[in-house]
Amino acid sequence: MSKNLSLLRDYLNQQGLAAAIVPTNDPHFSEYVAACFKCREWLTGFTGSAGTAVVTLSEAALFTDSRYFLQAEQQLSGSGFELKKEGLPDSESIACYLKSRVGEGRVGVDGKLYAVGAFDALKRELEPLTLVAVDDPFAKIWRDRPPMPGDKAFLMSDEVAGATVSEKLRALKARLKPDANSLYVASALDEVAWLLNLRGNDVAFTPVNIAYAVVELDVDKVHLFINPGKLEGKDAERLQAQGVVVHSYSSFEQQLAALAAGKIVVFNSNRTSVSTQKAVEKSCRKVVVEEGLFGAITMIKAAKNKVEVAGIHRAMLADGIAWVRFWRWIEEHIGSGKVTEIGAGEKLRAFRAECPDFLGESFSPIVGYKEHGAIVHYSATPETDVPLGRDAFILIDTGAQYRYGTTDITRTLHLGKPSEEETTDYTLVLKGHVQLAMARFPYGTRGAQLDMLARQPLMQHNLTYLHGTGHGVGHCLCVHEGPQSIRLNENPTILEEGMLSSCEPGLYRTNRYGIRIENLMLTVPVEENEFGKFLQFEAVTICPIDLSAVNTEMLTCQEKAYINAYHSHVYKTLSPHLSEGEQAFLKKKTNMI
Questions:
Q1: Within this chain, do residues 295 and 319 fall inside the same structural domain, yes or no?
Q2: Model's pTM, two decimal places?
Q3: What is the rounded average pLDDT of the residues 307-328?
Q4: φ, ψ for residue 577, nearest 5 deg
C-alpha cells in the first residue's frame, strides 16, 4: 500500500467518512487539468488522462476505460489499488462497488470537483449511503503539491477575436434575457477565455487561464477571478477599460457570495461545481439553472464570426504547409529504422513550430504504426514506440494551436504496396468521409441525422467504427468543443452557420491496422428558398489525402469530382508558400484521379 493512500485513509478517519471518490478533474471541468489538480494521479500513481479513484477504509479501486487497461495494470502494481475495467459487459459501477463494500456512512467528494448535475445524479445512485461535498482533502495531505500555474496571460486583439467584450456581453444578454439584478457565473475556462478575449498557458494543449468570471448583467460589468500576477500592466488596463474588475482567484467563493446577495444567480449545472452553488445559495434571491448540457456562452461561441473564420483559414494554411513538409520528410526517411512513432510526432511539431504564431499542440499526438493504429486513442510511450516502415498503414492524428485558430487533422499513409483488403478498407473510409463532406441539409438538422452518411459505405460491407464522426472545435481554444457533435448518439444541438466540426470516419482491425481520415469543416449557407434555408460543409483543412491505397473503381463520379476539386484547392492554396521541391512533391500528391 502506498504512503499517499495511507494519508487519505487517515483523512477519512479524521473526518468520519466511510469512503472518498477522487475524479480526474479540476474546478472548471476541463478536458486537460493542470499539475496542481492531478490529485487522482498523485493518489494512485496512474498517469492516464481518465479514471476515478474510490477509497474505503479497507479497499481501494481505480475505474478506467479500455484505453488504459494495460497501463493501469502496470502502474497500479503495489499501490493498494485494484483495477476496475469500465465498459465491459460485467463492469461494476462506482455506486455498486461502494454499496457492496460500505454498509452505511458518508462518502466524501471534493465539492469543487463535482458539477451540480453529476453530484445530484451520484447522490441518488449511492442511496442509502450519504454523498457529501467536502473541502479539498489534498490541501492537507499533499505536502509537495505543485503550485498554481504562473505563466502570463495575454489578450487577443479585437482584430483577431472579431468582437469586443462589450459586444459579447450584449450577445450573452440577448440569449439569456435575464431578469433584473441577475448574475451569470462562468466556470469553464474556455468560456472565460472567449468572453474576455483572454488566452494563456495554464493547461496542456489548450490556451486558457485558470479563472472564473461573474457577469453583472444589469451593468455590463465582469468580475474576473485570476491570479493577478498573470496580467501585465497594459492588459490589465485594457480589461479595466472594458468594465472588467480583477480579483484574486482564491477569493472567488467569498466574493461571489457577496456579489450574489439579494440577486438572481444563473449558471449551468453541468459546468458549475457544488462548491460554487453553496457559495451563492445562502445569500442570493434565487438560483436559475440553465437548461441543456452547455451554457449560454458555449452556445454563442460555437458559431464563429467572420474574423474568427478568417483566422481559422490562416491557421489551416500554416498547418497545411507544415504537413506537406512533414509528409515529404517522412517519405524520405522512413524505412531507415531511425524514424519512430514518437520521433515522427516530434518532427511534425517542429515543422509547425516554424510558424511564429504557433502556440503548441492541441492534443497529445497519435502516431500509430501497424497494429498501434487500431488503438483509437493510442499514445506512444518509450516502451511501445516502434520504428516506422513502408509495409503497413501509419495513422497520424495531430493538431495545433495558433494565435488565430485551432487545428485537428488525421491522415493515414501507406508508403508500400497495400493489400486488397487494405485498399478496400481505406477506400470505404474515404467514401464515408467524402459523403459527409458533400452533405447539404436544411436548417434545423442535427449531427445525429448526418452521421449515417459517413458510416453507410462501411455498413454496406458489414463494417463500422465505435467512436463519433465529428466534434466541435474552438477558435484558439479547446480542440474538443461543444455543443454540436456528429455521432449516432442523439444531441439536440442543431448545426448552425459558423460552427467548426471534424469529419473523421475510421475503421480499425484489432492487432493489424487502423484507418482514419479527418478534415475540419465549417458549416456555411447554400441557399434560402421556398423550402427553407439550406446549409453545407466547407472543408477548411488544407492537406492532401493519401490516395496510394485507393481503389478508384469503388468511387462514384461525384466522389472523384469532390476529391479532385479538394486537391486542386490544396495545391493552389499551399504551393505559393513552398519551395520548388516541395511544390513538386505536393503536385504529385494532388494529381487528379
A1: no
A2: 0.94
A3: 98
A4: -105, 5
